[in-house]
Amino acid sequence: MSATTAVEMPEIGATGLTPKEVAQRIESGQSNAVKTSTSRSVRDIVRANVFTLFNGIICAAMALVLVTGSWRDAVFGFVIIINTGIGIVTELRAKRTLDKLSILVASEFLVHRDGKDVEVSHNEIVLDDLLWIRAGEQVPADGQIIQTWGLELDESMLTGESRTVRHQAGEQVYSGATAVSGMALVKVNAVGSHSYAATLTAQAKVYKKTVSDLNKGINTILKFMTFLVVPLCILLILSQIHTVGGWGTALSTGEWRQAVVSAVAGVVGMIPEGLVLLTSLNFAVAAMRLARHNTLVQELESVETLARVDALNLDKTGTITDGGIAFNRLVMLDSANAAAEQAATQALYDCCNEEQPNGTGQAVLAGLKAQGHGPGQVASRVPFSSSRKWSAVRRPDAGSSAATGREGNETWYMGAPEVIVAALDGDYSDVLRQVNDYADDGNRVLLIARYDGPDDPLHTGRSPQTASSAKPGESDGPRLEAQARPVALVLCSERIRPDAARTLAWFREQGVRCRVISGDNPVTVGAIARKVRLTGDREPVAMDARTLPEDVDELARVLENVDVLGRVLPAQKRAIVQALHTQNHVVAMTGDGVNDALAIKEADLGIAMGNAAPATKAVAQVVLVDSKFSHLPDVVARGRQVMANMERVASLFLVKTVYSALISLGVVLTQIPYPYLPRHITYIGALTIGMPAFILALAPNTRRYIPGFLKRVVTFALPGGIATALSVLLAAWVLPPVMGWNVTGDAADLSALRATSAIILFAMGVFVLARVARPLNGWRGVLVAVFAAAGVIGAFVPFVANFFALILPTGATMVATLIALAGSALIFALCLWLAPLVRGLTGKLSRRH
């Protein structure tokens, strides 16, 4: 059914714009079309994942090796493809899901043009159009009300205020609000990007890069390595050229190729490419696991932020409550018998059982139906009107009333307590006090009143008995009988999500401070916070945001003692996040309305509900697709698991960085051949670092992440890295003269040295893995044993041994290798013993200075 036949449109005098005027406005760009972008473009996603510092270093190293023709030593370059592919695929998947969520239902709107009502699309509305706003429609453009027929708007998406607002002629309405009841004729005065919602959205840019403490640490290492790698690579090439007899010999014999490969072995070992890959893999796995629980992670790095959150700002409507209304109970005002309560309950049902009940009426009907109540007999009815603020029913002649013993018909009223009480004879101030008490506890209160009398106050005419008492100018329409008396109060409230209290309890246990920030009345919000036990056994402290200081530092001090804020404006939500940042809090912000977009963008982690405005979902890093607040603990726990375990295994990768840098430095200073090949480090790294680290990173862990990742992992990695470097260098310096190897002139002797160095490197890798995996009881011990065995077994598999140039020592070389391994174990134990002593000494020195 079209809108023109669904409701009877009132007659208006204005003719509206002519077709020529409409065409002129469209041509001049004064239409309601607005270009929206819900997520990053494909080009942005690809560029951000391909052009990274890590990819540049690895790509350059791989190109150098490929130039030499030794493609087997370039297999480390595949990590670029895998790492980049994971990032691109995951973010494209997030983009596709978000774009699907953001598709709006194409609606038609009724405008008055050239004396006729015509339906146009959202984008075809132009400036100065006469626009009809009807119940159930979302306001498509800003405008001024010319004439209204009881228009009530839900502006919660713009202001956060959950109560509907009744507008009068001459008032401004804004795009994004929804008409709940009534209708109005509006003259459009702002369209497209100039409308209120679009202006608010423009302040929140669509994309903001998430700051990752882990990635910052890795990039710090990469930047340091960039300055170190280039000169060290040149020095390594020069040193390796020198070991084969100089440039002339190297170029004539082709030994320059081996020199380049050896130099790259040192460079690649210094770059923790596995750590970058593992980070991407774990972020992607966490994102996919969360997606199975209807949680969309738009940026992989935001998984880390989840682990660091210690302050969570919650929007009330849509997060703690689901936006609906629930019927709580009926409170009789006098000590009444069961029959009187039954009569009042039946009257409540009948008053709400209109043809098109509003939200409160629907909630009451649903609650009473659940209790087994149904419709009764009604002789006449006055439906609820926003202008009248009450509805009424009159029962057919039922004879004697069980409740009062009086003869006659019953007329029941239901509506706003202050309106009904004001029309009654008598003093009912005690009733209003009860109403205020219940309202302060977060309830929406309605009053039921009853009139027993022979006349019919709902009839459009007057009885002979009441006609003489009519006031001058009083209409003959339905009236609120002054002799009626209050009977009961109806208590309704916003429907609280069943999982809200349990979810908030989890956050309390995890040390996350939760605050409710809403545009609603602070008393109402505070009452809801008490119901869900926001602060546990402690009474939550509520405050009206209109009294908040503007100074950020002062605001931060006030917030430390406040749990609930009401009447909060969009700009204040952002200021609250900024104030919490000054106290070094990691802030997460949830929301669903356009009014939340600025704060969500400002927060370290923005969380949008699935039914949120497109602009809000666009700036959020995480979207709860099914809008369930209960997913948040799983979101935070998953982030903590990834980050706590990533810190645990990052030491594995940094050990390789440390020993590679030290070995390269030792090679340059002593002008010896590089003691192993790039393929050796690829094989050993995969078995003692990469694969075990990935398994360790998936283990359960809910410890909250604390900033300072880089300092802790470097401190942990230094002993193992130094021990490994010393073990390999000592073997390269001592074994050739002892064993009589000519490593600069004999390829077989060089291969023997490299085979021994590779074995030492593998053994030290197993030692480091065992240290990281502690405690070794249970599956962790099995993990270390399995990968140690896999490394040994691989050396006996011909294809593996040939591909990775693995040579098993025999005879005197075997004895020398075993002695070197024993020495390596002693060096490792000595470094571990000295590390705490050195840390303690440096700590004392730093405190003195």
From TrEMBL:
Family annotation (PROSITE patterns): ATPASE_E1_E2 (PS00154)
GO cellular component: plasma membrane
Subcellular location: Cell membrane
Region feature Disordered, mapped onto this chain: 453-480
Main localization, broad class: membrane
Gene3D superfamilies tied to this protein: Calcium-transporting ATPase, cytoplasmic domain N, Calcium-transporting ATPase, cytoplasmic transduction domain A, Calcium-transporting ATPase, transmembrane domain, HAD superfamily/HAD-like
Domain P-type ATPase A: 109-203
Keywords recorded for this protein, A-Z: Membrane, Translocase, Transmembrane, Transmembrane helix
GO molecular function: ATP binding; ATP hydrolysis activity
UniProt membrane topology term: Multi-pass membrane protein
Bilayer-crossing regions: 50-68, 74-92, 221-241, 261-285, 649-669, 681-701, 713-735, 751-770, 782-808, 814-838
Pfam families given in the database record: E1-E2_ATPase, Hydrolase
Domain of life: Bacteria
PANTHER family (alphabetical): CALCIUM-TRANSPORTING ATPASE (PTHR42861)
Protein name: ATPase, P-type (Transporting), HAD superfamily, subfamily IC
Origin species: Bifidobacterium longum subsp. infantis (strain ATCC 15697 / DSM 20088 / JCM 1222 / NCTC 11817 / S12)
